[in-house]
Amino acid sequence: MSTYFSKLIKAGDRVREFNFRRASLNDNSRYAVDVPDDKGNRILFSMYKNADNEWKVAAQLMPMWVHNAETDLANAIEENMKEELVRKK
Fold this sequence. Notes:
5-stranded antiparallel sheet, alpha+beta, 2 helices
């Protein structure tokens, strides 16, 4: 199973490339994510599955466009996990 993937997601006023990396080979419940901001600086944060089995952004001091894209980021992780299962078969 791949531990890294990228996805283009509209966040804020533009499409941005989000890079996802599984935190551990044996842990599908936490991902490290990075994305460039408008000035090209990398924003690093984590996403984790909460008790309700929902993906959440783990950092609070993020630009609002990161928080607003939380659902799209969660969908990207779920899509990648499904694709990996299909590839394994």
